[in-house]
């Protein structure tokens, strides 16, 4: 039975969810989830994390004319882990796709023997992929590029995990002159303390979306409960010219696991988006997310509604 939509929620689940399951793949797979998303050649293209029964993940293309139905799975269009390279020994995961010029830049998690780290590849056709190397060292993940230079430099959001500290795990911003060498880091969206839904640990969702009001950021917060971790989503707005400045941040989570396919799976109670697409109407935002680390769902929101919500939560 489909979970009914609450009209008070900003995101509305597609009634045909889940849109992709492991059973949709031609080969035996354990789970498909956490897709990057982009419009490519007039179609919605998802770069889906596909985990087989060894536990190793690769990234595979699925495409659809309407972004909801009749998905075509393409096994030959795959970014597979280079297991001869230390950075991808145990797979590649959770891609975020940013279009820069005619290239699609994919920032993804390499699962190395030293822990998860941020890797970079690019493509023009999603058939061949040029690896550009490791951007930041372990432990770091949940990273995405901004689509243009800001004040003469590129910017990236990412989520390092400090060791030996109980001060929280935050979303950071780093800058680069060339998309290869990264530095000048600073925390941007900090996890809150205490009983908040996003206390202690947050991480980036899809790449930041440029709007006239600022860079819209969708992020997950992790609440640890007696029965496990609960992943829910919130929004923030960064200054267009100074993205290290948070100009608005919602106090409440706006989307969380509620449907059966989000509450039961390999990792229960998880919604984890890595991609979203703004439709041609300039307002309908399609969010593609992994549900319970097992399947893929899509939900829609109005960009106007999201910004109006954030305008009620200014900072400063």
Characteristic terms for this protein:
single chain, mainly beta, Tachylectin-2, Chain A, 4-stranded antiparallel sheet, 2 helices, 4% helix, 49% strand
Count of domain modules: 1
The arrangement of helices and strands along the chain is EEEEEEEEEEEEEEEEEEHEEEH
- CATH class type: Mainly Beta
Strand content: over 45%
Average pLDDT reading: 95
Would you tell me which CATH topology applies? Tachylectin-2, Chain A
Q: Are there runs of 5+ residues with pLDDT below 50, and where?
A: none
- Binned, the helix content reads under 10%
Q: Quick one: overall form? A: globular
Topology (elements, then pairings):
Blueprint lengths: L11 E2 L17 E10 L2 E9 L5 E8 L7 E8 L12 E9 L2 E10 L2 E9 L6 E7 L3 E6 L8 E7 L10 E6 L6 E7 L12 E3 L4 E3 L2 E12 L2 E11 L7 E4 L10 H4 L7 E8 L5 E8 L3 E8 H9 L5
Report on this structure:
The chain is 4% helix and 49% strand. It has 316 residues and is mainly beta. It has a single domain (31-311), classed as Glycosyl hydrolase domain, family 43 (Tachylectin-2, Chain A, 5 Propeller). Strands 14, 15, 16, 17 and 18 form a five-stranded antiparallel β-sheet that branches. The longest helix has 9 residues, at 303-311. The mean pLDDT is 95.
Question: Briefly, what is this?
Answer:
The protein is mostly beta strands.
